[in-house]
Give the backbone structure.
Amino acid sequence: MTSTPPVAGSAAFLAAYDEVVAAMWPTGTTPTEVPTPYGTTHLNSYGPEDAPPLLLLPGGGATSTVWYAQAADLGRTHRVHAVDLVGEPGRSVVGERPIRTAGDLCGWLDALLDGLGTGPAALCGHSYGGWIALHYALHAPHRVRKLILLDPTGCFAGFRPGYLLHALPMLLRPSAARTRAFLEWETGGAALDPDWVRLREAASGFPAARPVTGPRPSPEALRGLGVPALVLLAGQGRVHDATRLAAAAERLLPRAKAAVLPGVSHHALPLYGPAVPELNRLIGRFLDDPGR
C-alpha cells in the first residue's frame, strides 16, 4: 500500500506542529505510529506504558496537540494516547480505504486499539471528537471502559444557527485570517497560546476534507448504553445551550454525570485559563473512581 502525507511539503504546518509538541507537551512524550486499513495513525503518547490506556480525540482541525494541558496530569495514572484523526490536519497519513461513514470511523478505532494492543480503554473526545467517541462506545461498548465527552457536537443537540453562520466562511474558504477571526469570536478574545494558534491557522492549508457526519444517535440507542460517562460543557460556548445539553445527556445516558464549566468557550475548553485545572480534576476523579 502506498500513501502520501495529507499536505506534501507543508513545512509551516509541520514546524508549528513540532514546536507545540516540543514546547508544551511534557518531557517523555513519544510519537506512536499505528498502521490501520484506513491509513497510518499518528499519536502523541505520554505516561507509564503499563498504565490503563486513555485515548484523546480532538475536535475538527485541532490536531492531537490540543491536549497539551491535560497530558501531564492525566499521564500520571494513565497511558495517554492523543490521536491525529485520519483525514484531518495532523501527522496521520490517509490510506487506500477511505473513511466515509460512522461505521468506517468505528472500524478505524477498532484497528487502532488492536494495533496498540490494549484492553478496554477510556475514551475522551472534544467537539467532533466527542461525536466519534460516542458513536464508538455505541458500536463497541465492551472496548470502552469509560467515556468522557467535552462539549460534544451532534450528540444530544444541534448547532445554534449563529455559530454555523460564523463558521461558514472558514469552512467554505479556509485561511489563516478566517481561522483567527473565528476563534477570536467564539472564545471571546481569550488569550490562547500563540504557538497553538499558529498551528491552528497553519492547519487551514490542508485540503478541504468533508468530515464524516450523520444524525444524532437515537434516544433508544443512548438509553441502552451502559458505559459510565462524564459530559463536561463549556458555559460560555456559542455552539449550543450548555445547560440544556447537560440535562439531555443525563436524561438519555443511564450512567452519565454532566457538569457545566463556567467562563470558558467551546474552542477554548481543553486548553485555556481556570477551566483547565477544574477540567483535569473532574476527568481524573472520574477515571480513578472504581464505582464509575
Observations:
- The beta strands are 30-36, 39-46, 53-57, 79-83, 93-94, 121-126, 144-150, 229-234, 256-261.
- Confidence is low (pLDDT under 50) at residues 1-9.
- The longest helix spans residues 102-116.
